[in-house]
Input
Amino acid sequence: MQQFLLRRLTLLVPTLLGMSMIVFLMVRLLPGDIIDIFTAGDVSITEEQRRQIKEQLGLSGSYPEQYWHWLSGAVQGDFGDSLRNTTPVSEILLDALPITLELVFLGLVIAVLVGVPLGVISAVRRESARDYASRLGGLIGVSIPNFWLATLLLLFTSRVFHWVPPFSYVSPLDDPWGNLQQFLMPAISISVFTMAIVMRMVRATMLEVLNLDYVRTARAKGVPRRKVIFKHGLRNALIPVVTIVGFEVGVLMSGAAIVEIIFGLPGVGWQLLQAIFNRDYPLVQATAVLLATIFIVFNLLVDLFYSVLDPRITLE
Amino acid sequence: MSDDELVLEELAQRELTRQELLAMGAGLVAAGALAGPAAAARAGGTKPKRGGKLTWALEQDPVHIAPFGGILTSNHWGKEFMYDSLLEWDAKLNIRPALAESWKVVNKTTVEFTLKRGIKFHNGKEVTAADAKYSFDLQAAPPAPGSVAVLGQFPKIASTEVIGKYKLRINLSQPDATLFGYLAWSRYSPIVPQGMYEQLNPSRQGIGTGPFKLVRYTPNDVVEYVRNTDFWRKGLPYLDGLTLKVLPDEQARIAALRAGAIDGATLSPDAARQFQGQRGFRVLKNYTAAFRELQFTLKEGNPKPWFDGRVRRAINHALNRQELIEKVYGGNGAYSGHVPPGYGPWPLTQRELRTKYEKFDLALARQLMKAAGQEKGFSVTMTTFSTPADFPALASVMKEQLKRINIDVNIEAQEPGTFAARNGTGSFDWDLTARGMRGDVNGYMAEFNPSAAIYGRWFSAYRNPRMWRLVGTGQIELEQKKRLPMYKDLQKLLLSTALLEVPLIAVQKFQVVRTRVNNMYVAFSDFNTGLRYTWVD
Output
């Protein structure tokens, strides 16, 4: 177990390094740099002024120099300052991270709490009206873009109830009820796709597991139906589901970006999108590294969780 | 009603009331005359009311609210209620004193300003010439988070001197008429207390003299203000509090308006139409300085068919601007010259543009193409912005129109950053682009100055000493009355002979407010200036 953890954590370093290099290059290779954006429409700008701006922004060195400068700061926890407002990037991300994490967490909870029971019902009541309804719901869930659903929810509540969630961020520590009101609709919006995927996966694996010998044996032994389904069936059916959930964290985080903008939640996704449009290189790099780290760590946790679900699995 | 009157009628949507005009002084009464009876009628009977709070949605985050060197228009949206400059514009874009009481042009390179006495900053300190000097020094070299990228707008100020507690002398390195417009625009020229940058974080905090004091700015979220009870313009502001909520998504702004979570917002024309005639809402519109135009490159050593002035004239007359207005903007637009309609006294009249300089005349266009030996036409790539959506739509209609003179236009829509990069380096043949607000009329002509770096990148193959002379003298002539005919002549020359850029149309900006909001108007400058004078029921 320790070896497994050590190996995975060691692998984290080259993964993040490679990813940061790719992101570093990609944002710089986009046509139009931050100076072009800064000076867009200003016909009186001179080459000398462009050079001054470059120096002011710390972009005058070669790419390897710039990368090294950024990396040497990053390993010490200094991700540089935003090129747009000179605020330390770490400060921006520390403000934004709790919002995105809360949104993704809630989205995941909703997806699992609704998706798993629906999948079980669908599998157990195969070919029934409930099964068809669940499958249809699943099909709709994977087909609806989350930004569209978010917009629809907003317009619906504003037109019908003359209500929209509070738009200014409320911390759950200051006002838990206000916070829940604010996050419920965005969380539902981002959860629907994952919910549908979870439901379909649970249904498929449950159908498979329920036909296995040990389940039949359990039934033959007279184990109560509920116990057969949940203890023998669901527990074993959950392993591939947990894997999917691990991957879905990435989907939820990417979906969060647009949904955050729609609901006015100043989270990491919103910051990243803005940073890309503004060619705010340090912010793009740090955000990408942060999101990648969250994704990798979450998948590591998922791997660890396998052995909890199935004691036969040993992590080496 | 003439076309120009129609444009002015649109400008009258500013809805300044008689009471406010009186409160704001005689200078603006003249502007009320411009707005005409329409505004007066709309204003009728509504008495300004003190108190209440208003929430306005911003479609973009301010990013920072530092007073100096802000690049984005949204920087100013976040800070505009906190600061004032020495001068300001009235509703007609006439320059009038703000923090300054008066000014004197001592000679062509020296201007002296006398400040009003007793004006207080938000921290209670009185405004003096030393504060103004400190502010000008920072404008000349904007500290972070500001950028030197805005220095292209900075007039030719060599130094400033404090010559009395309330007297400031500005020394110019050469005569520069743009000084006054720069100050009146106030976007880059706020006055802050001496030492402010050492006392606070200017990205998120600030001390000014404006009608509202900053409570907090949370990036990507909210800017919150409270009333400045010591505001130097007595009786204003009417509101006790003003909150600017960042909501980039238009549908979210619409939902928030319907739910009453915000009191007003800028919307696209289509979205604003949903609110037209609906109880509880009012749709405001006005022209802004952001007119659309077609731009060519004429670079040495790379001859193209449009190097021939007759081809450029043919293009100008083959474009049916009225059709563009109808098809792309649902009828909400006006013809624009190089100076957009509504920009004070400077633009050519709608009549001049419609009947002469921008007249749609296909026969003439074909004749000019034939005379230039381009009867069979040519192919060209026209780049434009991928967003907002009106740019690709405009390009499509123009493509159809230019087909009639056998010009085959390939449209290439680019992400704004990419477009800006290629435009700035002159790596394009034709660009369908837009212009924005300028502090001085010279800002609309700066690219035609052969000493400007951009001239070499865009128009190096084009020579026109008369154009160069007019651009140069317009900039150094300090007397506005003498400048006016110069810039009129220059615009006529640009539209009849040079045509390095083909101005197309001025578009309207739409804002929707709840009916409890009074006196709001869509500002020509693309700021939300009306909120300074707004009150709520």
